[in-house]
Amino acid sequence: MKKHVAVLGTALLTMGLAATMPAAGALAASAPPASATSTPGANLRVSLDQLLGEHAVLAELAMQAGYAGAADYPQLTKALGQNTQELSDLVASVYGKAAGRQFQVLWQSHINDLVDYVLAAKRHEVAGQMAAMKAMTSYRDSFSAFMAKADPFINASRLSAALQKHMDQLMASFNAFVAGKYRMSAQNMVSAYNFMFVAGDYLAVSIAKQYPSTFNNTSPNTLPVHLRVTLDQLLGAHAILAQLAMESGYAGSPQYPSWVYALNQNTQALSGAIASVYGPAAGKAFTPLWQSHINDMVHYVVATKAHDAAGQMAAMKAMTSYRDSFSAFMAKADPYISASALSATLQHHMNQLLASFHAFAAGKYQLQAKDFGAAYDYMFTAGAYLSSGIVAQYPQMFGLRK
Prior knowledge:
Strand content: under 5%
Shape: globular
Largest sheet: none
Radius of gyration: 21 Å
Order of helices and strands: HHHHHHHHHHHHHH
């Protein structure tokens, strides 16, 4: 595997693919100023959505890896722990350090309950599974009461119902995985990811109402922010599913067709989002362009598995062509989008996916987990950039004046 990791590095430099990540400042400079998509209220909502969406994915993948005895299980649990810490820090930044610590203990308890459920399922202990589920119910009520006490705009019963749905979705995905129903498992995991954005939106609106001056009296619940969150959510899912498809394809996992199916559904949803702004023709043109870089990634995985350096180079060359074509397409559609800035963004996205894939193929799971998270996080930078350009182009569509 080390040989192929070296091939990647050499090829990136040879073809100019190791472009420096466009800094947030560089993207901001090419976007319209004072965008309605980047208010303090908007950023609060995005931060919650991003972390909660990541939690759902990492929790589910850790459950599956723990049950299967997968080699990357320790790194998944470590990444999940880091996510919990970041959520706790966010809560502490709003409600204080004591509340942050209490949040962390409560939040970790439901992760521990999920682990207990997995262990019991692995041992075929029905009583253990029931005990874990009972513990989750206790967590649900305790956590809801904690949040409702901290924020008068949070309804304990509504939050309790949301937490129950979250846990039900994770359990449904896990149980489908255990039963070998991989498409159902993948669909439930995507649903669990998507629902976390609903939860994040609810929490953000409640927090902004409680502390309006902290967020400059800006609402997380506006049409421009909805657009940004929609793009963030879809692009974040794309990065996750693309990596899972590449890894499972390389490993010859029976889950591979299911991840590809979910990835194709995500592409259709992204095409629909583009069509809703630029029209059906643009949405139709978007689909083959976006799909092409997914196909290139697949070709790269196949070539890597076959130890075919020429095939890897051909796939990477095709990715470069996609990068330029897609950037030109979006810049033509929207005068507020810079082709060069978007090209650099796309290049960094592809570099991250390839880096994560090669770390996985080399068995460097700690590095893979880091790259996996970075690829997901970066999609939120891309979503912020694209949404600001779209809102600037069509302000009236999003309730703003020209």
